[in-house]
Design brief:
The complex is a heterodimer of chains A (about 300) and B (about 250). Chain A is mainly α and about 300 residues long. Chain A has 10 helices and 1 strand. Chain A has one domain: Formate dehydrogenase/DMSO reductase domain (Formate dehydrogenase/DMSO reductase fold). Chain A is about 65% helix and about 0% strand. Chain A is globular, with a radius of gyration of 21 Å. In chain A, about 50% of the residues are buried. Chain B has 7 helices and 11 strands. Chain B is elongated, with a radius of gyration of 25 Å. Chain B starts with 11 loop residues before the first strand and ends with a helix. Chain B has a single domain, classed as Alpha-Beta Plaits (2-Layer Sandwich), CATH 3.30.70. Classes of the chains: A mainly alpha (about 300), B alpha+beta (about 250). At the A-B interface, helix 3, helix 7, strand 1 and helix 8 of A face strand 4, strand 5 and helix 2 of B. Strand 1 of chain A pairs antiparallel with strand 4 of chain B, so a sheet runs across the interface.
């Protein structure tokens, strides 16, 4: 699948924003002043906003994006839209309500946390529900998304906490645990997801298997078409191993080391959050680039 | 709502005969011709006269080779939307633009609602949907819904453009929900099959397999075409003329 930049930015930033919102909702970091409370919630809202804005860039008709809120009964994309909007509204209320005291109402906060998790889950389910892409159609796919969102949220919350309150954040330890759990889930997912293929072959795609092996003799058109462009992305799959190493190093190992180091200053924690985001983007790039779609079986692929 | 309607009694669709399709691409061209001026936005092309032309098409003919050696067969393979009973492209649509008609099972896109997110194309295992490069909305085969119910056309034209134009009658149109329809009988008789049945989409369109080869002729009955083509040596006047001309 073609790794569209807009979708990489969308899933990474909105995931991180909702991850941070969940941690704010649970009241895991305290704001020393109302200004810091605004910054905490502002960072979460800005990340969510940037992510959602980026996702609309992917659309052929962004001006009709509101229509995507209507089919929540059947469509994970629609559910994602509804939940993202609802969570954002409640987060705004939570932030406004807690302004004076520097922390929000716990009941509303728990709602924010649960809705944030549900939003991240539905973002992942947009991909995980597609039977046509074996790599995505795996029970661990949503856990990978939630893992990155929560561990990223914890790293970011630790950085904000250290910046606001000076010195070491108590969230460093949970952030480390989050990163390690995410690494384990991602490793299992990377090994298992799509390993057995989609179950479809050029023989089942054409129904000509009883004649023997089926090979493409001529494509339907002389030049690449939209389907091949969108779903036949193969560029740089050969660099997958290297990119995976980059991604794990930037998203997990470096932030884990920085968060864990006794000298974890606020600057170090901010750096940890930044390398984490870059690492997650690389992993999202791989998420798309390594995914194979059954339609390519009609275009000479065998997987 | 993009919830699937209850399975319709009437299931309009195509039956495509892989035995006789010659890969002439006439159905591809007539489909584009009709649909660029018919239902919804035109089917646009990008760089049509340049180095790397592309554009949206609702029907494409692939060519495959199946089997090995002397038994290998070349099979031309037209492919358009299969109007699946369990169409995965319908429930994934976030706007309700993608829908399956309850009355005849045709899968359509309401282009005024489509936001061009492309998720329906991702969910289709067959590649039946293509994003229009100019309009930014999803295009797909409509089963020529604007022909088949169009009383202003002559009766013989009230069938999909691809079926109307096929010079070898490799494409058939009809109600596959009715076991007594011509298309259903054809499917039963010829062993029509589904594409990618393992994807559980329950396609309405069926494909007819290439017929088995005739028994390979053995030595006794085989005809030596080279021998047949050989003419007798000239004799008489023609022999004289031949030799005389040779001498000149």
């Amino acid at each position: 699948m073609r790794p569209a930049f807009s979708l990489i930015v969308f899933t990474t930033l909105s995931g991180l924003g909702f991850g941070l919102a969940a941690i704010l909702g649970l009241g895991l970091i305290m704001a020393p002043t109302p200004q810091w409370w605004v910054i905490y919630n502002g960072v979460a809202l800005a990340l969510i906003g940037a992510g959602v804005l980026s996702s609309t860039l992917h659309l052929g008709h962004p001006e009709r994006a509101w229509r995507a809120m209507t089919q929540w009964r059947s469509s994970w994309l629609s559910r994602e839209g509804v939940l993202a909007a609802l969570t954002t509204i409640i987060l705004l209320g939570f932030a406004a309500e807690g302004y004076a005291e520097g922390h929000g109402n716990l009941k509303i906060g728990i709602a924010v946390a649960l809705l944030s998790l549900a939003t991240i889950w539905s973002t992942a389910m947009i991909y995980a529900s597609l039977k046509t892409v074996a790599r995505w159609h795996h029970p661990l796919t949503p856990f990978v998304f939630v893992g990155y969102a929560i561990s990223g949220g914890l790293v970011l919350a630790a950085a904000l906490d250290a910046l606001a309150n000076g010195g070491i954040s108590l969230l460093a330890q949970p952030a480390l645990m989050g990163l390690i759990s995410t690494a384990i889930v991602t490793m299992i997912w990377t090994k298992q997801a799509g390993a057995e293929g989609s179950g479809s072959t050029p023989e089942s795609a054409t129904g000509l298997g009883n004649l023997g092996e089926v090979r493409m003799l001529m494509p339907p058109h002389s030049e690449e078409n939209w389907l091949q462009h969108e779903m036949g992305f193969v560029v740089a799959r050969k660099h997958a191993a290297k990119l995976r190493l980059f991604s794990v190093t930037l998203a997990i190992i470096l932030p884990a080391v920085m968060v864990y180091s006794a000298a974890a200053s606020s600057a170090m924690l901010v750096l940890a959050a930044i390398t984490h985001v870059i690492g997650v983007m690389v992993s999202r790039w791989l998420f798309f680039a390594e995914a194979k779609h059954t339609v390519m079986l009609y275009y000479g692929a065998r997987h | 709502m993009t919830d699937m309607p209850a399975p319709s009694e009437k299931k309009l669709g195509l039956v495509i005969d892989l035995d006789i399709c010659v890969g002439c691409q006439a159905c591809v061209v007539n489909c584009k011709e009709w649909n660029t001026a018919g239902y919804g936005a035109p089917l646009s092309d990008v760089n049509a006269y340049g180095d790397n032309p592309s554009g949206s098409w609702l029907n494409r003919v692939h060519t495959f080779e199946a089997g090995k050696g002397a038994e290998a067969r070349v099979v031309h393979f037209p492919k358009s939307c299969l109007h699946c009973e369990d169409a995965p492209c319908v429930p994934v649509c976030p706007t309700g633009a993608s829908y399956k008609r309850a009355e005849d099972g045709i899968v359509l896109v309401n282009e005024d609602w489509c936001i061009g997110c492309g998720l329906c194309a991702w969910s289709c295992p067959y590649g039946a949907r293509e994003m229009d490069p100019a309009e930014g909305v999803m295009k797909k085969c409509t089963l020529c819904v604007d022909r088949i119910y169009n009383d202003t056309l002559d009766e013989e034209d009230q069938i999909p453009a691809c079926v109307r134009t096929c010079p070898t009658s490799a494409r058939h149109f009809g109600d596959l929900g009715d076991p007594n329809s011509d298309v259903s009988k054809l499917v039963a008789e010829r062993g029509g099959f589904d594409l990618m049945p393992e994807q559980n989409t329950k396609p309405v369109n069926k494909y007819l397999p290439p017929r088995p080869r005739r028994q390979a002729a053995d030595d006794d009955t085989s005809v030596d075409l080279v021998a047949l083509a050989k003419t007798d040596e000239p004799s008489g006047f023609w022999s004289w003329l031949d030799k005389t001309l040779d001498r000149l």
